[in-house]
Amino acid sequence: MRTSHLSRRLRASSLLAACAGAAALSGCANFSEVKSEDRDLFMVSATGVSYTMSIPALTAAAKEKAYDFCGKQQMKADLRQLVRGWRPMQVELYFRCQPQGVSLQALLD
C-alpha cells in the first residue's frame, strides 16, 4: 500500500515537472524591435533562446509579432518574405501593414 502511494506521488511529480518544462521552453524566443526597411516595409527578427524551439515555432512567433504590430494600427499584416537561419536559430520576417478590407488585387488595379 505504501509503495503504490509513493509511486503515484513520484509519477505525479515527474509529470508536473515535464509539463512545467515544456511550458517554459515553448516560448523561448527573443524578438528584435520592428524595424522599418522602407517607408512601408517592416522587419521583425525572432531568435531561439534554446535549441528545443523549432524553426516552425519561431516562424509562428514572428508572424504573431507582425500581426500584433499591424493590429495596433488597426491594419492587417501582409507577410512578404521569410528568411530562416540555423546558426543561431533565427527567423526574419518582412511584412507590410495594409488597411483592413483592402485586397492585393485592389491595390494593383
TrEMBL record:
Key word Signal present: yes
Keyword entries, A-Z: Signal
Top-rank lineage group of the source organism: Bacteria
Keyword Signal: yes
Signal sequence range: 1-31
Name by which UniProt lists this protein: Lipoprotein
Highest classification ranks of the organism: Bacteria, Pseudomonadati, Pseudomonadota, Betaproteobacteria, Burkholderiales
